[in-house]
Amino acid sequence: MVIVMKKGCTREDLARVTSAVEDLGLRAHVLPGVDRTAIGVTGNPGPLDPDAFERLPGVARAIPVSQPFKLASREMNPNDTVVRVGKRAIGDGGLFVIAGPCAVENADQIMETALAMKSAGADALRGGAFKPRSSPYSFQGLGKEGLILLAKAREATGLPIVTEAVDQATLGLVAEFADVVQIGARNMQNYELLKRAGKLAKPVLLKRGMSATLEDFLLAAEYVLAEGNPHVILCERGIRTFSHHNRYTLDLSVVPTAREVCHLPIFVDPSHATGRREAVPAMARAEFHPSPDEALSDGRQALRPQQGAELFAQLRAIAAIVARKAEAVR
Amino acid sequence: MVIVMKKGCTREDLARVTSAVEDLGLRAHVLPGVDRTAIGVTGNPGPLDPDAFERLPGVARAIPVSQPFKLASREMNPNDTVVRVGKRAIGDGGLFVIAGPCAVENADQIMETALAMKSAGADALRGGAFKPRSSPYSFQGLGKEGLILLAKAREATGLPIVTEAVDQATLGLVAEFADVVQIGARNMQNYELLKRAGKLAKPVLLKRGMSATLEDFLLAAEYVLAEGNPHVILCERGIRTFSHHNRYTLDLSVVPTAREVCHLPIFVDPSHATGRREAVPAMARAEFHPSPDEALSDGRQALRPQQGAELFAQLRAIAAIVARKAEAVR
Amino acid sequence: MVIVMKKGCTREDLARVTSAVEDLGLRAHVLPGVDRTAIGVTGNPGPLDPDAFERLPGVARAIPVSQPFKLASREMNPNDTVVRVGKRAIGDGGLFVIAGPCAVENADQIMETALAMKSAGADALRGGAFKPRSSPYSFQGLGKEGLILLAKAREATGLPIVTEAVDQATLGLVAEFADVVQIGARNMQNYELLKRAGKLAKPVLLKRGMSATLEDFLLAAEYVLAEGNPHVILCERGIRTFSHHNRYTLDLSVVPTAREVCHLPIFVDPSHATGRREAVPAMARAEFHPSPDEALSDGRQALRPQQGAELFAQLRAIAAIVARKAEAVR
Amino acid sequence: MVIVMKKGCTREDLARVTSAVEDLGLRAHVLPGVDRTAIGVTGNPGPLDPDAFERLPGVARAIPVSQPFKLASREMNPNDTVVRVGKRAIGDGGLFVIAGPCAVENADQIMETALAMKSAGADALRGGAFKPRSSPYSFQGLGKEGLILLAKAREATGLPIVTEAVDQATLGLVAEFADVVQIGARNMQNYELLKRAGKLAKPVLLKRGMSATLEDFLLAAEYVLAEGNPHVILCERGIRTFSHHNRYTLDLSVVPTAREVCHLPIFVDPSHATGRREAVPAMARAEFHPSPDEALSDGRQALRPQQGAELFAQLRAIAAIVARKAEAVR
Question: pTM value?
Fold first, then answer.
């Protein structure tokens, strides 16, 4: 349930509602908005009676949330969530490009890539210091050393850093260095890690599990939100299907659907899904239209810097067209 | 195997090669090109010896085809196939929009839609007269009457007509009326129907089966090509996956991959895959970028005419950007 | 809707109900039963009023059918359908094993296999004379010659014959020779073929399409039933999934679920799904337990005759255990 | 690579080989066998030269392992791994039934179920104290209290306990109480948890992730094995497919295939896959045949005790038939 407060409600009104919620053994999440404050209620096993809250002073309306995910739902928050990363914003309607190598390999590699991505027009640098790998015998990342190299690349370019945390033990360390903490597809249902990420003050980029339904995906986001971290960014990265011409099937249609039922921003990662350099530009152009504001691509591994620059410029040109007409077509 | 002829080869040279192929119990398919003529060879159970053909007068080279699909492969034809529909071309790099209702329902409905699609800027009208339906109790289409109504709509608007054939018995009738004969997803492996479509002089729009791999899809096209009809247009329309937020998962990444290994043009149909009016514009914008020249959408059922006009204009503006930069980024 | 007649109802009662149904523009299907006769009603776009029928003489009850498939549903027929094949029955609780090669290749091959299958204890012989193949360049079957060879094998062994029809043009020919006409997975949604099969007096073995949901599958069966042929046998043969250790994923759990909502017998074909000789016995033992009465396996191609004999004996022993305890455990 | 030692090899021979492996920067895993000792080598990025090891005294042969998983492969260990649980063994060819509720709810519930399962003939009790739940608002388990209740049920019945660990923080606690530590499907690619489980002295039951290929699954097992814990038991529990008549599609054919390439025992869990009480007995009968020795079912939630007793008895009878004939049919 969301309890929407009246415009001029007082602190006492808010406190009274919060207490009323907690007296029922439930949790109250204060959701400050531009025009009005709302209070999200979670923890109720079944539907609540709106009357019990609408009677309280300062309350405009109490609205039941029909989705299994609550804080993530559009019902709870009809406005798009905007996540600030450095001086930039994700989810405000502008294009935001994250680029970089899959893994940080050494000082030269990450610095060169960062400079190339910067001049190509990327908005953030990504690179893995901790890597979840299918085989225990594959390179598992440079760990803390990788994080230090990322920080140096940030210093040199001004690009904020997106990097993955793979367990609770190193999550704090990753959060110290990262501007955005990534939770990878393989950990999307590692609920203990999600709960811990919900206690961070940093934005969390949550990648869709390779067999997660949209509901599973948004419930995973809900784990982070429910612990108090509202800065969650979603990312579609391809799902497992019978169709094996690419490693994964990029499920682009999840983007408009997620945006209907959920207020969180959503990225698309075309490089892991296709797994082939040739297909990345085509899918990147495709990808960001449903969600005109974001794109995440893989730098060195997939595209040469010059290719990146041209692709990003093309994306911005298309974004301008889509934004201009967006109201008309919607 | 493809046998590429020298530039100034004579009719006799061609006839000699054709005979040599047929003497081996194989089939020879003459593939005329702008610069050179080639002869496709099919029917061989294993690899052929190139020498046997390269010795013949007028032969430049004999190239084995490694893919299971032969005539459909890029090895057989490195140039993009362009299919002419009325005065227009599909696959020449321009945008081509097919729009219209799922089924022809009555005279007013199809005429109104056709006029609206025409003024919105569509390039062809589609509508089903014969409908393959999951349930025997659902409306199965108007049949011949539907074809007559489509012909009247073509007369009034000048738009060529795309309509589906569902069996061998009525394929001839459909081909009499249609400018492009559609083979639907449910019949993609109805090989007897494909063989019959391969004897038509009309272009065939072949929709991907809902669980067809790329290889299955191109082998289905091969059935049509192998019978002598080179005018095959592919169409991605969504596949069956666990992901149930939409009816089907539109597998956009099949487009760049198909174009790497196959020379046939490929459309994308966003309306059947999403099954929801809201998601169509987003997926349509996404869809045609991988393949900058085509888009197929569902008219009345999904989008109102004004929405269509705005969407199609947006698609053309994006197509211009993608085309302009395509060489650079590729 | 199913209209259940009273025990002693007269011919006139039946005729009156049939007329009442047809007067509404609907179809009446007389379903004779051991204890009572029922009339299935199809063609109604929405729910019907039971009262209109319950008022008629001889009518016990009129029961709405909630499933999209009507004649195939348990609501329409609570008893298991038993299909007679020669002197044997499919669906009566006994084990029924269909075995044989994928394709009829020549006289010796099919005769030898038939004799081996007979002595191994198979109940029917299968073998393809018309083969739907992914590639137009693969062997498409011996056609009529194959049917003649099958007939000779039947003569020599007494085993009834199961063989596939791939199009309307040759369906009649196949039905002349076959004891059971198979519709393959690739044609499960070839609705025109299904309708034609619905006019046969022969049993139809309908294989599940590789991406068919249970509802799709039963609606395909409904196409046959709706045309008047009640002798439909279902067959699970594996579905397309991401899981690629075998060609297809045998979806055994469809068997108990199908039997809950549908009265038709259901076979399982372990050989095509696994695609590997080694896995067939394991899956065959697994397969038939959900449905203790049937199993379909691939003979020569997969198992040597001696292996077949031991497997079939093992299946019968397990069937005895399952049957003995079936009431207790259900 | 596996280095197989000669029958009468000395401790010094073994130590010399181990040193030679470690000198190359690789890891040596001593694998004691009934007849011979072997040493598994892991950590090599590419193929190793067998000669370098075959020259050493006491070495019979050095065999390269072609699979990406090494310690889990049949090449490394041609014998079936047998895991001891209390006085019983898993993987020795006998039937082993694990049964119990999804979650431990309270003292009475778990004690009653344990007694019922014991008298029905189960071999181990399972029940979740820590539960990974899709929604943060669902019951997450009783935690340590649940473990204590399980221990009491073990005391009363003698049944060993199988219970899940969901994170590194509580893994040690779970291992203190459990006889077998379960890693659930959602954590199958939580590699940090797997590594930690590899340091336990307790058997680990690893459930297949819902979109894990067989290779992913065996590589996850490899994470545990590579850390030194050889007591890994696999468990198939259903995969995500388009087929939605059940929650998951039980992929039974993974069992014979896994056993071909891997020496670890494998269970099947029919209750979570079907999600419906009615389908459990059918799938349980099906499930255990490919792997005649094990079955895992859900007790109270799914089956009433009397049903359980009858099902388990039926399973044992079938197991006897399958075991008796297993050599003949293979």
Answer: 0.87
